[in-house]
Amino acid sequence: MHKILRVNMSTKEIITEEREEYKLLGGRALTSRITYDEVKANCDPLGRESKLIIAPGLLAGTIASSAGRISIGGKSPLTNGIKEANSGGIAGAKLARCGIKAIVVEGKSYNEKTYILKIDKEGIDLIVHDDLKYSGTYETVAKLREIYGEKSGILCVGLSGERGLRAAAIALNDPFGELKFAARGGMGAVMGSKGLKAIVVNDDVSPFMEYHDREHFLKIAKGLNKQLATDPKTKDIYQKYGTSSIVKAVNAMGALPTKNFRFGTCEFAEELSGEKLYETIAARGGKGKTGIPCMNGCVIQCSNVYPDADGESIVSTLQYENIALLGSNLGFDNLDVVARLNREVNDIGLDAIEIGAALGVALDEGIAEFGDEAGCMALLHEIRRNTVLGRVLGNGALVTGQVLGSDRIPAAKGQGFPGYDPRALKGNGVTYAMSTMGADHTAGNCFGARNEVDPLGREKQGMLSRDTQKKMAALDSLGFCIFARVPLFKDPEILSGLVNSLSGSDFTKESIWDIGFNAIRLEREFNINAGISPAQDRLPEFCYYEELKTVNSVFDISSEEMKKAIIE
Amino acid sequence: MHKILRVNMSTKEIITEEREEYKLLGGRALTSRITYDEVKANCDPLGRESKLIIAPGLLAGTIASSAGRISIGGKSPLTNGIKEANSGGIAGAKLARCGIKAIVVEGKSYNEKTYILKIDKEGIDLIVHDDLKYSGTYETVAKLREIYGEKSGILCVGLSGERGLRAAAIALNDPFGELKFAARGGMGAVMGSKGLKAIVVNDDVSPFMEYHDREHFLKIAKGLNKQLATDPKTKDIYQKYGTSSIVKAVNAMGALPTKNFRFGTCEFAEELSGEKLYETIAARGGKGKTGIPCMNGCVIQCSNVYPDADGESIVSTLQYENIALLGSNLGFDNLDVVARLNREVNDIGLDAIEIGAALGVALDEGIAEFGDEAGCMALLHEIRRNTVLGRVLGNGALVTGQVLGSDRIPAAKGQGFPGYDPRALKGNGVTYAMSTMGADHTAGNCFGARNEVDPLGREKQGMLSRDTQKKMAALDSLGFCIFARVPLFKDPEILSGLVNSLSGSDFTKESIWDIGFNAIRLEREFNINAGISPAQDRLPEFCYYEELKTVNSVFDISSEEMKKAIIE
Lengths: 568, 568
Hints:
Aldehyde Ferredoxin Oxidoreductase,  A, domain 1, 2 domains
C-alpha cells in the first residue's frame, strides 16, 4: 500500500491513488518530490494553486526508535521557495500504519466553514467543525481527542494559520496530548488558507506495518534502539535537558541571539540554561517532567513538561530554539517567562522561532521594551485579537521589519534566523543563505561540528554546511530525529538496512544518502523555477557591517566558499 | 561639461567627476547605466550599499518643448529591481544648465540630522536643515524657495520618504511652486533612507546650454515646438483636460480601476471625467486654472490647478492616474474629494498610484468603507502620524495586502497597478508583468494603441508592449514628455536631429531608438543580477481567475505571447 490521499478543498473531493513509484520515498523526500511534481513553482503560496503535502518519514510506524517524524511541505509563504518542516508527535506513525504515504491538500475552500479531515476505519471524510473556528491549538487538540479518541493523531492549525499569517505553524499531539510543532516556513498559513483546520488520524484500521523482511528489520531496529537507549548522552543529557542542553555552549561561543541579535552572549544565560531547566522541573515536581517521549516507542525521550511554581504545567516541551528566540533574544532572564510566552505562542499556533525573531525586531524598534513580559504578552494578544499590529507581527520577522522600518532584520530568504548568530557560527550563516530552506538550522546545523571546524573561521564552512544539509535531508526523509544521528552517521548501514528490510530496496551505506541528495536537488530546481536566484544567497546587510562584539566578527564568508554549500 | 556629482551621505563628501563616456546618455538611459555600473544588484535598496541616481533628460535645458523631464533611478524597494521614475518640474533644466549630467547619492547618513544638497554659484554643499525634518512637501518647497529663491529647482521627499516608506515619491516644483512627482518605485524611500531631504539647484552659475550646432538645434526645436503648439489636440484636449481626458474612454473600455479592481467601469465616471474637471475649474475660477506648463518653455501646458468652491487651490495638478486610483478605485464619485485626498497624499510625499492601490486593498479588507472620505483621510493621517497601520499602508499595496491577508492585491513585481485593469487592457498587463519596471504604465502604456490592437485580444499584445516600452525608454532618456510623442514617433528624425545638433553625435532616425533599447537591456541584466527571474513575470492570481465582469474577461495572454515583450 503506497497510497496518496488527495483532498481538494475547492470541491471537497477526496480521492486515493496508489503510487508505486513513491515506494522508496518518505518524509521530506516525498513532500519535496510531490511539491516539485505538482505545485506550480511561481504560484501564490496562499492561493488556490498552492498545495500542502504531508508525508510520514519512510520508517515512521516501524519499531525503529525516533523514526516517526512527519514532514509537511509545499511552497512557503515566507521564502516563496519550497519548504519542509518536520515534527515529532504521533500522527506520523499512524498515517504510515494506514498505508498513507502522503496527504496532498489542494485547492482552497471559499466558504467560511471550518473543516477537519478525519481518517479512521470508518473512512476518510471532510467534516465541518465550526465549533473549532479560530480556536487555539490546545483547545483544538483537546476537543478532537475527546471526540475522536485520545489516541488520535492530530495535526492542526491555530487561529494564526486560519488567518493566513505567515509565521503560522502546524501543531501535532504527542502521546500525552501535548503539542509539538512543524514550525518553520509558515506551513500553518498554507494549511489554514485552504480552510483546513485539522487532520485527525486513527490507525484502528491497520495498526501494523508491512515489512519486506520483518525479522531482519526487527534485528537492526532493536540493535539501534539499544544503542540509543544505552548511550550515556541519552540519560545524562537528552533525558535531562533535551535540546536546551546547548544554551550555555551557544552562549559561550558568542552565538546566542540576544536582544534582536545585537549581542551574542547573554548575561542571564545561566538562568536560561538546560541545567536550570532540569533543576527547576525537578524541584517543582507536580506535573513537571523530563525524559518523556514525543513519539511512541522513542527511547531517547528528550521532551519535558515545564511546570509553574505550583507544579502546574506551563508548556511542553521547552526547547533550545524557543529559549533563545523568546528568551535571550527578547531580553528575558527567566525560564518561567519564556515558558509562558511559549505557551501563548503555541496556542495561537505560531512558529516560536519566527515570532521570536519578529518580536525581537519590534522591541528593537521600540514597540515594547526588551525584558518586558507584559509588553511581549500584549503583542501576542494583538495577534490573537487580529489587530493590524498583530497581523504585522504574525507575518514574521521580515514583514515586521519592513513595516517598522528596521535595518536590522535577522532573516534570510524571507525567514527569521533561528538561535545561532551567523557571525559567530558561520557555517550556519552559510546554511541560512544557501540551503533550499532559507534561514532554518534544521536544514544544516553546523553547531555539532564546532570542534571540527572553527565556527569563526572563513574556511571549510561551505563543505561543512553542504555535508550537514545532505545528511539532514536524509534523516528528514526517513523520519529520524536529529538526536538519533550519532550511531546513524557512524554506521549508515543501519539506515540502509532498515530501509531495505522494510521496502525490499537495495540501498548501500553510501547510496542511502542519495535520498537526501536527491531531495535537495529537486528542491533547488523548484526554487529556481520559483524565482529564487543566486542574488538571494545572502544574509541581511547588518551581518556584513555590524561587528558582533563578543567575537569581534562580521559575517565574512567569501562567495566562493558559500557556493561550495550548493547541492546541485 | 559632463559632470557627475557624487554625494556620499555616510562621509558627507561631495566630489565631481568628468565623465565623457556619459556624453550621449541622459535621463533614464543614464540613471540605468549608473545603477548598472555602480549599484550592487542584490543590495538592500534602503541600505548603505544602495544609491540614488538623478539625471536630467539628454535634451533638458534646451529650448525644445516638453523635453525637460528628469529621471530618478536606482534600486526600487518595491520591486527589488531597477527603477526609473521621471517627472516634470524645473529642476531638470537647471541641472542640465549647470552641466550636471547626474547626481549620485550614495552611502547613508547615520545621524539624526536632516540634510539638503544645495547647488548654486556659491558651490555645492550639504546643509543641515533640521527645521525641515518630517515636514510635508508643500512646506518644504515653500521654505526652500523662500530661502534659496523662488526660481530654485527643488527635489524633495516628504515625511514618508524620510521614514523609508516604500510608497514614498520625490516631489519637484514647477515654475509656480506647485508640485510634480517622480512617483513610482518608492524612490522617495531611497532618498529619505540616505538622510537627504531635498536638493536645491539654481542655474545662476551657467544659465545656458552648450550646443554642438546651436543654429541647427534651434531650427529643429522651433519646428517641433510649433508642431506641438498648433496641434489641435494641444488646445482642445491637453490644455483643457490634461491626462484626465481619458477617464471616460478608459471607463468605456471597462478598464477603469473601481473598488480595488473589482470592477472596470464606474457609474460615476462622468463625475470624475476630464470634461467635468475642466468645467469645474472654469466655473469656479479663482486660483483654478487649466493649460499651464509644468516645465519652463513647454508649449503643451497640460497642468491644471483644481480649486475648491471658493476658488482656493486644492491641488495641482489633478491627473488621470490619481483620479483613477484615489477616485474610482476607492469608490468616490466626486473630483473635490479626489483633489483633497491628492493634496494630502502629495504633502505626505507619497506616490498617489501606489497609495491608491494600497488604500483600495485596505478598504476591500474592511479597514474603512469605499466612498468614505473621512475614513480615507483618517488612513492617510495614520501615515502622517507614523502609526503601525500608517506604516503598513505607506509601504504600498503588496505589504498592505500581505499584512491584511488579501488575496486580491493589484500589484506586479511588488508594485501597485496603475489606472488600467490588465484584464481589459491586456497590453498593459503584459507591461506590468514583463517590463523592467514592474507594474508601471509609463514603462509601456498600450492605451494609446487601443484602436490598432484589440485591448481584449490575446494576440499582438507582446509586440505592442515591447514596441511601446522601447519608445518610452527613448523618450524617458531624452527628457521628453509622453504628450510630445505624436510628431516624434511620426518623424524620429526630429529626435536624432536634436540630439546630434546638441551633442555632435550621429544618430539616425532608426538608431535613435537604441537609446531606449540599450537602457532596457541594461535594466534587464541588472534585474537578473538582482534576482528577478522569469518566475516573477506574472500578474497576481486573481487576474487569472476572477472575471472582470464588464468585459467578461480574465487575463489570458499566453506565456509565449508575454515573452515577445522581452527586450534582451
